[in-house]
Amino acid sequence: MGVGAAMVFPATLSLLTNVFTERQERALAIGLWGAITGVAIALGPIVGGWLLERSDWRSIFVAMAPVAGIAGLLIARYVPTSRDARAGRIDRGTRAG
Question: Distance between CA 17 and CA 13 in Å, rounded?
Fold first, then answer.
């Protein structure tokens, strides 16, 4: 989970700076991102420890499944695509050498 978080944090911050182009909106979005990240970093070990006291280590994954599902649905609904419309197709027909 730590490796996943280490990959997600820079990607979400980069996404925020590209989606929110107006200065005031961007400042608000980055501020909210920082506040939510701080709360998550503080509560993660506490909730994880509580779950480990009550059950075994697999309970963390069971508890995080609904959170990940809700996050996925919210991302699919509200985050715009960042694909370049002018990007070319991948040429899979050539071989090097």
Answer: 6
Determine the Cα–Cα distance for residues 40 and 96; give it in Å rounded to an integer: 47
Each residue of 67-96: pLDDT tens digit? Answer: 889 989 988 898 777 667 777 777 777 665
pLDDT tens digits for range 17-27: 888 889 999 99
Residues 6+ apart with CB under 8 A from 13: 30, 33
- Cβ of 24: how many Cβ atoms within 10 Å? 8
Give the C-alpha separation, 18 to 25, whole Å.
Answer: 11
Domain limits, the chain: 2-78
**Contacting residues for 52 by C-beta, under 8 A, at least 6 apart:** 59, 60
For residue 85, the 8-state DSSP code is T
AA identity, residue 24: Q
Entry pTM: 0.63
Which amino acid makes up residue 62? V
